[in-house]
Write a structure and sequence with these properties.
- The structure holds two protein chains of two kinds.
- By secondary structure, chain A is α/β, with parallel strands linked by helices.
- Chain A is built from 24 helices and twelve strands.
- Chain A folds into two domains: 295 residues, NagB/RpiA/CoA transferase-like (Rossmann fold, 3-Layer(aba) Sandwich); 67 residues, no CATH class.
- By secondary structure, chain B is of the alpha/beta class.
- In chain B, helix 5 packs antiparallel against helix 6 and helix 11 crosses helix 12.
- In chain B, the strands form two sheets. Chain B has a four-stranded parallel β-sheet with strand order 2-1-3-4, with helices on both faces. In chain B, strands 6-5-7-8 form a four-stranded parallel β-sheet, sandwiched between helices.
């Protein structure tokens, strides 16, 4: 998808004034937080698991090349193929070639964030294929021609009424879909035919197992299984950071993933795919391909942002982020929203395009405390700010203001009298009311809140006056 | 026990009374308080990516507070900067890294210092009112300060605490964030101010003046009668005047 991350402030303004979006956000995000809290409370070893998970990921990243090669060898041994894509464009070309080779027309898709990242739907459509999303949320936003607004709940910004209306329009009927049940039943009815008529199925991967060449996929709808097993060809799209050494390692991460994401102990479906259909298998695809996507990841691996590659895409940081909660995912302007997106988007798209994202955070730190793999998200956002500052990409006005302030703050003998003057002036302006409703050039503060007035004398001045010493 | 007060720039400029309240509490607990000449901990530079200025200011603080066994700040945010972030600023400079580590080990947030280090909970204060307490993000998550303020407030005669709905949620101040992204900040502080009002409390207390300026500003705009004080003012029996932003003045 085309990024609008550069228009973040405009996106925020629109989102804050979108009443339907605000209603949808208000209802849902609290639910995720409560459910996660309960799931964590019910698992005393949760914190210990987090530490183990971090260690597993760190170990794998330190030997990423080795584990990826081992994974490739096992996939080949089980009859599948592995394709290496260094960029989004290369990944698209590989997938389209595979679809052509399979003589495909209809392509079903499970939910894949890396698929969004490389804009595979647009590429498939442009190449004459008909991509059909099979995850209910993805299907809804595909009908709406919108990008996902949440990495695990792509249509979280839609109300039930929005969805009923979309279905009426696209499924060409006048039925009232009054309940969630009716909506799901209709989606199931429409989707079944598409599952059965698909030539290629594309899914993402939650984990790749180096030891066995297996792909682990979790869903709650079972759509991933139908997408992977019914068509003749199964294509797996996966970022290179998805590999873990063993099934044991994946099981640690799985115990954290669903709890962090939705508060479930385990997702409804957790499936391992290993190679194409074998002679003794009753079903499965005849061709099995894994496309390993780099797209900026190996650059991250060798940088101070390596910790970001631990991410298992659970969405907990989004759910607990006050910024995400206020504006939803679309405001971030690209595939990955919330704190993880505010780190990933600038790293993949560049700071010129996505420079607002690392700044639009109070660094409140709640994301880091809920991250199942302990990614220091506020620290990474700060690092991006430092790079922005070093490369001169910060807005000129804030650079100047900061430079002036720092000039004074580095000179205590100047700072004291200067600030003393300032607070006297502000206190006089406020008069007896104790606060200012308006202040020239302070609209960013006073548009929405009063400015409490200072007392009129600094503490340090008062202290030295009262106690009579330096 | 010699204690250096790191008064913080916001208390210094906005609310000297908080500094005096901190001094009273520390003296009452038997400390001898000194106030070295100071400006700011450097967070505005640090959080805006200006690491050169952040380091220069950090070195200045490290120098000014070198000779004190304890450095205490009436703020989780600034104490967190000294404790958690100064060392990381000097990752590649072993001499200053050692000095930063040394300062970090001696630095404390006021309320947790009174409770954990000095083991003093009761300052003999009375304040008949209902209050709610806002946890600043840095106190809560960087320093793990959550139980201590509540224990100290429980000793204030007549004071009832009504907890806020979402104590984990940021108020939207975020240092320069509040003026860089005013619409987002406005939304967050509006949520927080309404949560404060919903408790029915007469007072809003917190251990960080940044949050308090932000929430008091929004409460003022909403014409709320809730009075806003730093927790030190209440504990020290100095919450008798107008609250922050004039709230509570007849």
């Amino acid at each position: 998808m085309k990024s609008t991350a550069h228009a973040f402030e405009h996106n925020v303004h629109v989102a804050l004034h979108d009443e339907r979006l605000q209603r949808a956000l208000g209802r849902v995000s609290g639910g995720f937080i409560d459910k996660r809290r309960q799931a964590v409370r019910a698992l005393p070893e949760f914190e210990a698991l987090r530490r183990t998970a971090r260690d597993i990921k760190d170990h794998t990243l330190a030997h990423l090349g080795d584990y990826l090669e081992r994974f490739e060898a096992r996939v080949i041994a089980s009859g599948g193929q592995v394709h290496w894509a260094s960029s989004a464009g290369e990944a698209r070309r590989i997938v389209i070639e595979l679809c052509r080779a399979a003589d495909a027309r209809r392509v079903t898709k499970g939910k894949t964030m890396v698929g969004e990242e490389i804009a595979i739907n647009e590429a498939l459509a442009a190449a004459g294929f008909e991509p059909v999303e099979t995850d209910l949320g993805e299907y809804i936003i595909q009908l709406a021609e919108e990008p996902p607004s949440h990495i695990i709940a792509p249509a979280i910004h839609k109300t039930r009424a929005d969805i009923a209306e979309l279905f009426r329009r696209h499924h060409h009927h006048e039925q009232e879909l009054a309940s969630a049940r009716a909506i799901v039943d209709e989606a199931r009815r429409v989707m079944r035919q598409r599952f059965l008529s698909a030539d290629v199925g594309i899914t993402g991967a939650n984990f790749l197992i180096a030891d066995t060449g297996s792909v682990v996929l979790v869903t709650n709808e079972g759509n991933g299984d139908l997408t992977a097993t019914v068509p003749r060809t199964h294509i797996v799209l996966a970022g290179i950071e998805k590999v873990v050494p063993t099934l044991e390692d994946a099981s640690v991460l799985l115990r954290l993933l669903a709890r962090s994401a939705t508060g479930q102990a385990f997702t409804s479906y957790t499936t391992l795919f290993t190679g194409p259909r074998q002679p003794q298998d009753r079903d499965g695809p005849s061709a099995f391909h894994v496309v390993l996507v780099d797209n900026g990841r190996s650059a991250m691996l060798g940088s101070e942002y390596r910790d970001m590659l631990r991410c298992i895409r659970c969405g907990a940081c989004l759910n607990h982020c006050p910024i995400y909660g206020a504006v939803g995912g679309h405001a971030y302007g690209w595939v990955y929203p919330g704190p993880m997106g505010s780190v990933l988007s600038p790293l993949i798209l560049g700071l010129k395009e996505a420079g607002d994202l690392p700044n639009a955070s109070t660094l409140c730190g709640r994301c880091e405390t809920v991250c199942p793999v302990s990614i220091p998200l506020p620290g990474l956002l700060r690092k991006l700010r430092a790079r922005q500052h070093a490369e001169g990409l910060a807005p000129r006005r804030s650079r100047w203001a900061l430079a002036l302030w720092a000039f004074a703050a580095r000179r205590p003998r100047l700072y004291g009298p200067l600030m003393g003057l300032g607070v006297r002036l502000l206190a006089r302006l406020a008069g007896h009311r104790g606060r200012l409703r308006r202040l020239p050039s302070a609209g960013a503060w006073t548009d929405s809140r009063d400015l409490p007035a200072p007392a009129g004398e600094t503490f340090q001045a008062a202290w030295r006056r009262e106690r009579g010493h330096e | 026990m010699r204690v250096a007060l790191f008064v913080t720039c916001l208390v210094d400029l906005y609310r000297p009374r908080v500094g005096f309240a901190a001094v009273r509490l520390l003296e009452q607990a038997g400390c001898q308080v000194e106030v070295p000449v100071q400006t700011c901990c450097g967070q505005p530079a640090y959080n805006n990516g200006d690491l050169d200025n952040a380091r220069a200011i950090a070195r200045q603080v490290i120098e000014a507070f070198a000779d004190y066994p304890y450095v205490v700040a009436p703020s989780g945010s600034c104490a967190g900067m000294l404790k958690c972030h100064y060392p990381s600023l000097f990752a590649d400079d072993s001499e200053w890294r050692a000095r930063a580590d040394d300062l970090a080990a001696r630095s404390h947030e006021l309320v947790s210092f009174l409770h954990d280090t000095l083991d003093v909970c009761d300052f003999g204060t009375a304040y008949p009112a209902t209050a709610t307490y806002h946890d600043s993000c840095s106190s809560l998550r960087e320093l793990g300060v959550q139980a201590q303020p509540r224990r100290l407030l429980a000793q204030v005669a007549g004071l009832q605490i009504e907890e806020l709905a979402d104590t984990q949620v940021c108020c939207g101040f975020g240092g320069t964030f509040c003026v860089k992204y005013p619409e987002l900040s406005a939304r967050m502080v509006d949520d927080k101010a309404r949560a404060v009002i919903a408790t029915g409390a007469h007072l809003l207390l917190a251990g960080d003046l940044g949050c308090l300026l932000n929430i008091a500003g929004r409460l003022g705009r909403l014409e709320s009668p809730v009075r806003v004080y730093h927790i030190a003012e209440v504990l020290a029996g100095m919450a008798d005047g107008p609250g922050l932003g004039g709230g509570g003045e007849p």
